[in-house]
Amino acid sequence: MWTPATFLHTTEVAPSDRGLAVRGARDDVAMTSPDRTIAHVALGQHGIFTTAQAEAAGFSAAQIRSRVESGQWERRMRGVLALAGVAPTALQRAAAAHLSRPGSALSHQTAAAVLGLVDVAHHRPTITVPPGGSGRSPLARVHRLVLPPDDLTRVGGLAVTTPARTLVDCATEVGARRLRAIVDRAMHERRSTVARIQQALGSAHHLTRQQRDAVLDAIDVWRPDLRPGSPAEARLLRQIDEWGLPAPQRQLVIRNGAGAIIARVDAGWDDRRLALEYDGAEWHGPSQWAHDERRHALLMQLGWRVLRVAAPDLKPGSDLRHRITAAYLAIVPIAS
């Protein structure tokens, strides 16, 4: 497994990678121009390169064989090589799996890890290859699917499915709750949009109806123009829907009798003057406490009740459902 932090920014050569480049060249063998070229290529691909890339750098078949036999390079599989000293991590296995299959792309949860949408990925990488190719690989799980050009991007020289297509493909591997968490992260970080996910869903004919519904359900909370402020707010809105309560208005603007704007709350029911505020650390930290209290006092003067929700309230076993439901049912709707 690897973290997205180790996968991203792959066009930069980390100090440890520079050390691998030195170890890759034996002290008693001067690095030639082709050696330097292939070292640069390999370090952009996490220490992995192909026989074809070595040949393009200027190596003959005999020179390639000589470097493998001398220990400068290591053969990972037919056609796939590595600089000596590069540890066989999941990161490098993903690169090797992709490079071993021309026309392939890293996809599904492997792509999610590459793109930073999940913190860890499966030990065995996943690639997608065009139909007609072999569905077997000693290095990866293989899907045979048509990937439209719009569904592909590149990270550090490796072909990877776009965030939108990755979210759609993950629906075939993870449950609804896990999928919603990945979607929320992507949407909150503005890595994708509802429109792009819908477009990717339209070309993903391999999904079952249940999997398609799971994707649509995951993006539904992000569909309106007034999007949630965080993944936690998205989970709160989903829970309210699951409890059977009417959907609250999002980013609800509250005005006084003169029509002046007093506050904008995360969600609420205007007809019951019941507001919900998610106290996330990003927007409601200590520097905001005094302002929040003043605003809360103004809302109370106008007859509003404000329920504050924090991260622990969204965990199983909390009394959030009881608090919100009881408050909603206890307030008589205001006639419009």
List the helices and strands and how they pair.
Layout: H1 4-7, H2 15-24, H3 33-43, E1 48-50, H4 51-57, H5 61-70, E2 73-77, E3 80-83, H6 90-100, E4 105-106, H7 108-114, E5 126-129, E6 141-144, E7 152-155, E8 158-161, H8 163-170, H9 176-188, H10 194-203, H11 209-220, H12 231-242, E9 249-255, E10 261-269, E11 274-278, H13 286-301, E12 305-309, H14 320-330
Parallel strand pairs: 5-6, 11-12
Antiparallel strand pairs: 1-3, 2-3, 4-5, 7-8, 9-10, 10-11
Helix pairs in contact: 7-8, 8-10, 9-11, 9-12, 10-11
Mean pLDDT over all positions:
83
Outline the biggest β-sheet.
Answer: 4 strands, mixed
Query: What's the name of the CATH homologous superfamily of the domain at 231-330?
Result: VSR Endonuclease
Count, helices: 14
Q: Strand-and-helix sequence, N→C?
A: HHHEHHEEHEHEEEEHHHHHEEEHEH
Structural class: alpha+beta
Widest beta sheet: strand line-up: 9-10-11-12
**CATH topology tier name of the domain at 231-330:** Endonuclease, Chain A
How would you characterize this protein structure?
The protein is built from 14 helices and 12 strands. It has 336 residues and is of the alpha+beta class. Among the domains are: 83 residues, no CATH class; 52 residues, no CATH class; 100 residues, VSR Endonuclease (Endonuclease, Chain A, 3-Layer(aba) Sandwich). The strands form 4 sheets. The protein has a 4-stranded mixed beta sheet. A 3-stranded antiparallel beta sheet has the order 1-3-2, sandwiched between helices. α10 runs antiparallel to α11. The longest helix is centred in the C-terminal third of the chain and has 16 residues. The chain is elongated and about 85 Å long.
